[in-house]
Amino acid sequence: MRIPLTTNNFLDRAERVYGDRTAITDEPLAPCSLGELTYRQLAVRARAIQAGLHRLDVSEGGRVAVVSHNSARLLELLLAVPSAGRILVPINFRLQPGEVSYIVDDSGADLLLVDPELDALLADVSAPHRLVLGEESDQILLDFDHEPPPWSHPDEDAYATLNYTSGTTGRPKGACLTHRNVWVNAVTFGMHMQLGDGDVLMHVLPMFHCNGWGMPYTSTGLGVEQVILRKVDGAEILRRVDTHGVSIMCGAPTVWNMVLDAAQDWPGDIPGRDRVRIVCAGAPPPSLTIARIEQDLGWQFNQIYGLSETAPLLTVNRPRREYEGLSPEDRAKNLSRAGVPSLGTSLRVDDEGEVLVASNTVMTEYWNKKEETDAAIESGWFHTGDGGVLGADGYLTITDRKKDVIISGGENVSSIEVEDVLLGHPAIADVAVIATPDDKWGELVTAIVVARNGEALVESEIVEFAKTKMAHYKAPKKVIFRADIPYTATGKKQKFKLRAPFWTGDRQVH
């Protein structure tokens, strides 16, 4: 017997097994907060969304784009839209209007849903249907009076989501994740993190990030209570861990640095000690920070490595029984590596040092980009664009990023895109953008700038110039002035030479 692995399975099970349990506690201060919903209420709203898509003539295979902070409405879209045979396109809410518009147009979205706090900023971004999440979307999209037509031909190889990711060209590419990709990632992630129905997940990670790394699906299928955090704040994370009994969270290194900072002023015992486990990805925090998370907070540190193209799980690094006798420093050093392949993932490093993977979580293609797809998936292996080393124990360490992508605060930044913007400044003759290490952000977007004809430039002017042209998180946080940029004989920037002085000792580009 072969039953298609589709996203329907997660909410269907939650409604049947955990119908009266609290499913979501929405952000209380959010515009049009939904408050608390049970899994039964969540399933009813999901069906109303699906009926509304039918009423708006968004056909099966049609794209629904959403730009939103973390919210219950975003979570229900992740569950409802793909399960109706449509494709959800979650978009980074930090992008500038022009960048959002490109993704909406490139994906061919039939419907665009916008967070009320972003409505004015994105006023000029349009689609055949455009609704503001909240009262407007509830009135126009949700149809509680009709049962939605069932998905005509459920197919695990159909696209569930389009997740746009930065690359070397600067133009984002839509990674086509199938229902099978999403399903396998969710189940495998839950297994490795030992998720159970006694857990409480707080959505600290923005859910547009590769569908919240798949945790909305994992948690729903297991009846896990899900707490929405709209905006990251270290002290607020501690308060909600305390109030809601949170036991698991995912996020970038910068989040956990904020929590460590807030913990210094926290009165009394740190909430969640010996209960909370966190999952970290992106540029790994220094081993000293990992040790502080486990010692000062008493929270278990876990690390994964993956990409939007891989749904994202590829490797896992969890505390092992063998680590129990190690010093905190040695334990943290072991946990700072990317990890070992997740169940069902094959991984190797080729002769040029690039990490190649094969997995059920790897995307089918880049949306409408055959040439880029063929370059990324070759002979059954996906080229991650990352350089790495496999240890004798099978653990992967990422050593370089061939795609010139910087991971700052958990966000991917294309160095080439930043360079293109900065070269538009009339006083800049040349520029190279690299990652430099930072305890708070993981990696800093750092611009190495050559002034034109000896013109006087200051860091703040360059940073502000960049912020007028692109999302603020992409703008350089550090500017270094040099007389020249080193190039190869074939005219390629030798960024490894520029990076080398910053990445010394056990600090490596991840």
TrEMBL record:
Keywords in alphabetical order: Fatty acid metabolism, Ligase, Lipid metabolism
Protein name (record): AMP-binding protein
Tree of life domain: Bacteria
Record-linked Pfam families: AMP-binding (PF00501), AMP-binding_C (PF13193)
Annotated family: Belongs to the ATP-dependent AMP-binding enzyme family.
Region forming the signal peptide: none
Annotated ranges, domain AMP-dependent synthetase/ligase: 12-367
InterPro entries per record: AMP-bd_C, AMP-bd_C_sf, AMP-binding_CS, AMP-dep_synth/lig_dom, ANL_N_sf
Positions of the AMP-binding enzyme C-terminal domain: 417-492
Gene3D superfamilies: 3.30.300.30, N-terminal domain of ligase-like
